[in-house]
TrEMBL record:
Protein name per Swiss-Prot or TrEMBL: Flavin-containing monooxygenase
Pfam family, one: Pyr_redox_3
Family of the protein in this entry: Belongs to the FMO family.
Domain of life: Eukaryota
Database matches in InterPro entries: Auxin_biosynth/cation_transpt, FAD/NAD-bd_sf, NTF2-like_dom_sf
Needed co-factor(s): FAD
Length: 606
């Protein structure tokens, strides 16, 4: 996992900085339509200078495949102008249409921050695209763009086979045989082999199927969903249901807001069946060796037989870390007479009834496991090695998601685009503000944690969990109630000193204190996601790959969902929302390559 690094702390376009105000008689729709008319005309004419004049100097343009065939963010007028000069002619954006809907109008997230939001559609040489722009006022009364987001939605001539384009033919008695033939690939190999059958693998398989691309998902577990089903019993999603819908098949309205892991596992199994995805369970990808522009893949099936395929694309959908987890090494572990295990191998609290348990770690898994031990009467102590960002789901999600991912909010496809339209670097200032708002709402429990000795932080550069998620995919706990148990002393805490060594009966710390333990559970992360690629493809291939996760200099996620450094090799990972959104990006790239319409990635650093 890429380590965190400092990102530009870009100033927000506040009214004070802009030396501007919002007129009381503002006709936001009229302003948006006037701006958009010039924007569309200038873009269609490939007039980069004219388009650039519609932006403020410190503006952002974020593009996902529509104009760059990549994930790029350009910050500042010189970079935006260069990008437009390089790409407008070849992409040839045209047929611009402004959406006159609920998302067209003035928004004011803070008293000193206001913009006019607008959404639009357009075409390029290869595809159908959408866009979102936010206009801010200037001292002379003009409104100019501070952010523009463009996104590839579909490929011309290759629409998804959904809705009116679905299969209309009746099937009398042949469906079972047809499905078996399709899923066994006896006559023709798959175009895409997907390693891993969790939400990321199934999501991209569903997207590919809708684009008429045959894929095979290889899942090592015995059942789809076992990646969730086999984890600790107390596991439950900390994201609300309206954030977590999967492609084409949203959760029903009776679904609980926070999904238990076993319920999600069962849903994934039914999802694969309902969407007729080709999945081989109890199977392992032994190797994937590059040969020319393809990969020779060997799959060992549950019955012990091997199948070999030559495929042009391999997608690694194996999660954010190695399954065995990352266990730190301490002196004396070999003499410890108790049980050592990683959280990925922990199942239920009652396995350790009557024993003294120490959980090393202070992020999500550690909190969940400690709460489960406490609720089952087990003596448990949390060992905090470094400070943690804490945000309650009760207050945090309302501040961060209200009106986007919320009950009664927009459809998830609209919410995803609204969310993506804030470039990560531009969002730093917003995250710093919302983090302070949430901390004030969470003041009582945070003060209780501090009084107990729990070490808190406010995230990287004061951004809460935002940059922690993008840079480390961890380092925080979205509180579902465990923080109060720690503040009340019901879950014991050891912090402020480091583990020195293990002894026969427990742990010794640098400050000389000791902690008795019969069981030590390491909730210390899931390791390096590159380990899966290394195991299947070898060290030579792994050495050619770009970094996994973490933000690149433009504020885009490294490697994942985009060019990974090896032709035909892809990484698909993330939470359910990220997989829902970006699975289509991966599928569109693969479809475009297979149909010969993929353009040139805009790799120029501007």
């Amino acid at each position: 996992m890429t380590s965190s690094s400092v990102v530009p702390n870009t100033p927000l376009p506040t009214l004070d900085r802009l030396n501007a105000s919002v007129p009381t008689d503002l006709d936001a729709k009229a302003v948006a339509k006037a701006w958009f008319k010039i924007f569309a005309q200038s873009a269609e004419a490939s007039d980069a200078q004219a388009v650039a004049q519609l932006f403020v100097p410190d503006a952002f343009w974020r593009d996902m495949l529509a104009l760059t065939w990549d994930f790029r963010t350009f910050s500042g007028l010189p970079k935006i102008t260069q990008f437009l000069s390089d790409r407008l002619g070849s992409a040839h954006p045209r047929a611009f249409t402004l959406r006159d809907d609920a998302y067209l109008g003035l928004q004011q997230p803070f008293p000193d921050l206001a913009w006019i939001n607008l959404m639009f559609d357009f075409e390029t040489e290869a595809g159908i695209a959408s866009g979102i722009a936010r206009l801010v006022p200037s001292a002379n009364g003009e409104w100019r763009a501070h952010t523009v987001f463009t996104n590839l939605e579909d490929l011309k001539g290759f629409p998804e086979k959904i809705g009116a384009l679905r299969n209309h033919a009746p099937n009398h008695g042949k469906w079972v045989a047809d499905r078996k033939k399709e899923s066994e690939f006896a006559d023709k190999p798959p175009t895409v082999l997907i390693v891993g059958g969790g939400q990321s693998g199934l999501g991209v398989a569903a997207r590919l199927k809708a684009l008429d691309i045959q894929s095979l998902v290889v899942e090592k577990n015995g059942r789809i969903g076992d990646n969730w089903r086999n984890r600790y019993d107390a596991l439950c999603l900390h994201d609300p249901v309206w954030y977590d819908h999967m492609p084409y098949l949203p959760f029903p309205p009776t679904w609980p807001v926070y999904t238990p892991a076993v319920k999600l596992a069962n849903w994934l199994e039914s999802y694969a069946e309902s969407l007729e995805l080709n999945v081989w369970t109890s199977s392992t990808v032994v190797s994937a060796t590059p040969v020319g522009d393809a990969y020779n893949v060997i799959v060992k099936r549950g019955d012990g037989s091997d199948r070999s395929f030559t495929v042009p694309h391999v997608v690694f959908a194996t999660g954010l870390g190695a399954n065995d987890g990352a266990v730190p090494i301490y002196p004396g572990m070999d003499v410890f007479k108790g049980e050592l295990l990683h959280s990925s191998r922990h199942k239920k609290a009652t396995d350790h009834t009557g024993k003294k348990v120490v959980v090393v770690g202070a992020c999500t898994s550690a909190h969940d496991i400690c709460a489960d031990y406490y609720e089952n009467g087990v003596d448990v102590t949390m060992v905090q090695r470094s400070s943690t960002y804490i945000m309650s789901i009760k207050n945090g999600w309302k501040v961060l998601m209200e009106g986007v991912y919320s009950e009664g909010g927009p459809p998830s496809d609209i919410a995803d685009r609204l969310n993506a339209s804030f470039p990560h670097h531009m969002g730093v200032g917003l995250a710093q503000r919302t983090t302070k708002v949430i901390a004030e709402l969470d003041k009582d429990v945070l003060d209780g944690l501090r009084a107990r000795g729990f070490q808190l932080n406010d995230g990287i550069q004061g951004t809460g969990f935002a940059l922690l998620a993008w840079s480390r995919a961890g380092g925080y706990y979205l509180d579902t109630g465990t923080s109060q148990l720690i503040a009340d002393g019901k879950i014991k805490l050891k912090s402020g000193t480091s583990i020195k060594q293990f002894t026969e009966g427990g742990l010794e710390f640098e400050d000389g204190s000791v902690l008795a333990a019969d069981v030590v559970v390491f909730a210390t992360g899931l390791g390096d996601p590159r380990a899966h690629v290394r195991k299947v493809c070898g060290e030579e291939v792994e050495a050619k790959l770009k970094p996994f996760w973490g933000l690149d200099p433009e504020g885009e996620i490294n490697g994942v969902w985009r060019d990974l450094g090896m032709k035909g090799l892809w990484s698909m990972m993330g939470n359910l929302a990220l997989c829902r959104f970006h699975s289509k990006h991966v599928a569109l790239q693969i479809k475009a390559i297979q149909e010969g319409v993929f353009g040139e990635r805009y790799s120029l650093t501007v």
